[in-house]
From TrEMBL:
Residues 19-254 form the DUF7702 domain. It comes from Pleurostoma richardsiae. The keyword Transmembrane applies. InterPro entries: DUF7702 (IPR056119). The keyword Transmembrane helix applies. This is Integral membrane protein. Pfam families: DUF7702. PANTHER family: INTEGRAL MEMBRANE PROTEIN (PTHR42109:SF2), UNPLACED GENOMIC SCAFFOLD UM_SCAF_CONTIG_1.265, WHOLE GENOME SHOTGUN SEQUENCE (PTHR42109). The chain crosses the membrane at residues 16-39, 46-68, 80-105, 117-134, 154-172, 192-210, 230-253. Keywords: Membrane, Transmembrane, Transmembrane helix.
Length: 313
């Protein structure tokens, strides 16, 4: 469907309105656990979960706008363009944040900046890609392609796809790091975060591949706004929901992540309770960590002999 047709397009069908209502209802139901997950992860998940919450706001805006304007012809406007672009950008950043958090809650080599460099480069590239694609793909009836700059649209979408391929590569060294420290208190959380990123990635790659395909082959049925209902249902609704559900599941199962401030100097065990303030014995402080995890189970050794030596001295 071209831009001239869009000017005389019919109002959205009842199926599209029902899809928008279903989308809105699902994200309303997912918002409370997402807010709780964001609070539980705290500072450790700052580059992931607050961005995920903002994605919910964009979905609410898009769905509510669709329902309110259900009697008006479907056409491109600022709200649709910005919510579509923002939703795509947020989900990409969430996937980057999941892998980054999985790395940062585990022991890092001294003076290691690799993770922060990867985070910065991928964030910059993804933001640049979505900006270029949004500008280039904006409707312009005066251009033969129907968009402002077809080449910019193609370059931007390819850049976003390349960023996700980079994150797929990053998952492998992240998995090796996780499996190398099975006794670490954050081992389960890091594993679930990476599981979530791995489960969400196929959905997001399909979503990005669809956008990239449409940037090169402007098939009317693939238009994200004026295209077929199947396109909206399968390539937009299901793909985005798949990423969101995987992220919520990963965040829920990793909610007990231990902040780095509570880890000991070697980042392998938690600091014991202060015996002076808690009234606990040396044995209790040595055997129980702040989150209730046994030091013997984490370290794989018995600390009682060490305590006996200290007491004898």
């Amino acid at each position: 469907m071209d831009l001239d047709t869009a000017a005389t397009a019919n109002p959205p069908s009842a199926r599209l309105i029902n899809l928008a209502i279903a989308d809105l209802s699902i994200y309303i139901a997912l918002l409370p656990p997402t807010l709780w997950i964001t609070w539980k992860h705290g500072k450790t998940g700052m580059v992931c979960w607050p961005i995920f919450v903002s994605y919910f706001g964009l979905r609410f805006a898009a769905d509510i706008y669709q329902v309110i304007k259900r009697h008006e012809p479907q056409q491109y406007n600022e709200v649709i363009i910005m919510t579509n672009a923002g939703s795509l950008a947020c989900l990409s950043l969430v996937l980057i944040g999941l892998v980054y958090e999985a790395n940062m809650i585990l022991p890092l080599p001294p003076k290691s900046r690799t993770e922060k460099i990867i985070l910065g480069v991928t964030h910059l590239a993804n933001t640049g890609g979505i900006a270029v694609a949004t500008y280039g793909g904006s409707p312009d009836p005066t251009k033969p392609s129907g968009v402002v700059a077809e080449n910019y649209n193609q370059i931007g979408n390819c850049l976003m796809l390349f960023v996700m391929f980079t994150i797929c590569w990053w998952m492998w060294p992240t998995w090796r790091r996780i499996t190398s420290v099975p006794a670490h208190p954050n081992f389960p959380a890091a594993r679930f975060l990476l599981y979530a990123a791995g489960a969400a990635m196929p959905f997001h790659l399909v979503r990005l591949a669809y956008n990239t395909t449409y940037a090169f082959l402007r098939v009317p049925g693939l238009d994200p706004v004026l295209g077929s209902f199947a396109t909206r249902l399968i390539l937009l609704f299901f793909m985005q929901l798949g990423v969101a559900l995987a992220a919520v599941a990963g965040g829920w199962f990793s909610r007990n992540v231990v902040p780095r401030s509570q880890l000991s100097g070697d980042d392998l065990v938690l600091k014991p309770r202060d015996s002076a303030s808690s009234g606990a014995t040396d044995e209790e402080n040595a055997g129980v960590l702040e989150n209730g995890v046994s030091l013997r189970r984490l370290a794989g050794t018995d600390v009682t002999p060490a305590l006996q030596v200290r007491r004898s001295i």
